[in-house]
Amino acid sequence: MSGWFQSLFADPYGTPAMVRRLLVEHAYAHRRLYAVAFVLMGVSAGATAISAYLLGDIINQAYVHRSFPGIVAVGLLAVLIFAVRGAATYGHSVLLSRVANKVVASNQRQLFDKLLKENLSFFADRHSSEFIARLTTGAAAASQSLNLLINAVGRDLFTLIGLVTVMFVQDPVICLITLLVVPPAMILLRKLVRRIRSIARKQFDFNARIIETMQEALQGIRVVKAFTLEDEMHRRLDASVRDIEGESNKWARVANRASPLMETLGGFAIAGAIIYGGYRVVEAGATPGEFFSFIAAFLLALPSAKHLARLNIELNSQLVGVRVLFEVLDSPSGEPDEVHKPPLALSTARVEFADVRFGYRPDEPVLRGMSFVAEPGKVTALVGPSGGGKSTVLNLILRFYEIEAGAITIDGQDIAAVSRGSLRGQIAYVGQNVHLFRGTVRENIELGKLGATDAEIVAAAKAAHAHDFIMGFPAGYDTPVGEHGFQLSGGQRQRISIARALIKDAPVILLDEATAALDSESERHVQEAIAELCKGRTTIVIAHRLSTIMHADRILVIEGGLVAEQGRHDELLRKGGRYASFYRLQLSEQAAPSAAVVTLAR
Ligand SMILES: Nc1ncnc2c1ncn2[C@@H]1O[C@H](COP(=O)(O)OP(=O)(O)OP(=O)(O)O)[C@@H](O)[C@H]1O
Ligand SMILES: [Mg+2]
Description:
There is one protein chain. The chain is built from 22 helices and 10 strands. It is α/β, with parallel strands linked by helices. The protein has a domain at 12-330: ABC transporter transmembrane region fold. The site of adenosine-5'-triphosphate has 12 residues, from helix 13.
């Protein structure tokens, strides 16, 4: 027995195990509210049973005893019973909704926290819309499953027990006859459940694909329009929409198959009751009250019986969403909390790579024993051919990925041995693609230092050469930037992102120089802003512009995951090695004054 019981829960994502987990992890915390709801459900189920019972009294008072005062008394009692049932139903409905909303809210928070603790490779392997589908479906499914269960037990089961009791009191024999249909109903319903589960899973997947297509089209709306891809996007969406429509129809067919089944079996049961009960009244002289009360109880019980019969079908549809939720919550975090690691303690901010080896995928080395030093307060420029590993160097300093061998140290401390938060807190990163968040210019700059004063924000904007153009907007610092900052020009976006990095006042600056060409005026402003940002800080810049490279204190030529050469611009040119040929091929045209802004092809 216990072996069988345990095997029920062996599959962590099987129905029994998931239901148990829902109850333990989500329902238990709200047990008091649930208890009150149960009591109220019991009250309303009792009221329903009593009203069926009373019908027998009414009929006997009217037709057998022919007593008008008796009828009035029963009528008044009915008012009371219905009022009590109404109040109890209101109470438990509101309570259950409140608990459900709490469960949804806590799941949304938990899922989002979990998402923020994932590392970059987790995101590289997945489409962002998958999370959106999981976040929305998963968070809602848990509360919906719980409500299904609670309603099934509290409302339907209690009501059914009450009404069957009335039926039994009124006429035990017919009651037993009608119960004969229960076992065949259960056997037939079991078959439907298995099909429902696979249909519901497909519905979820197709739904995620629809969100994916919509989101991609929206994010790439410029490309869609410029390349007139509307028809192609339409075609992609159409396929998923058609698929999900088909699955939803299938779901409806299978799930509703329970109804004709239950109605037919219910018909047999009531036919038996009518014939036997009628026979008792007509032939054996029984009073009609019991007979009618029995029929009323039976008819009232039918909807609850149907709900219970459908419970497994509905529950298994919802559990697909719950499973998705549990899968996300159970997967180990890529960036777990590091409370036990000490914070990074900076003095001069000297960054060193010592024989660092790393690859994004196993057996595909990207850095093959890289060593270099970024001197404190100096600008180190990384140059080299595309795919050489420059962006990888920045990713590793930020500890977006863990290295395989060697060590990255800042002021002698291994960055893997200090907490991620303290490491990233000392680094200001300005990426190649500027990302601004929804909100105003002020809010976006403030993200560099939460709680910064207006004076600090203005000072940072001034240093980033952004203040003048910001003040040129009618709303000034309160100008909304639009989604991804699309309401600003490319150069303006860059300067705001530099202001955001400046206000952070971090001792280490990582800069991935933008390759997008700006007009010479913007270019000059951005260059000046960057010069301001790097002043006196340890800066590592992936440089594409000759002006940045020429002013760097040291240039590292990164090629094939190694430092091929290093030195200053003139030293390296004189040497006539990799840098010299790189310069001749890619940088020299920038040297001509008229073409000062031509940027490198990556
Ligand atoms: N997330 C990733 N997953 C797998 N491989 C990656 C990933 N990012 C980069 N790579 C690979 O790592 C190698 C180095 O990439 P990296 O981005 O560091 O080059 P880069 O020097 O910055 O080039 P570019 O000048 O074009 O930006 C490339 O071969 C690239 O294909
Ligand atoms: Mg790069």
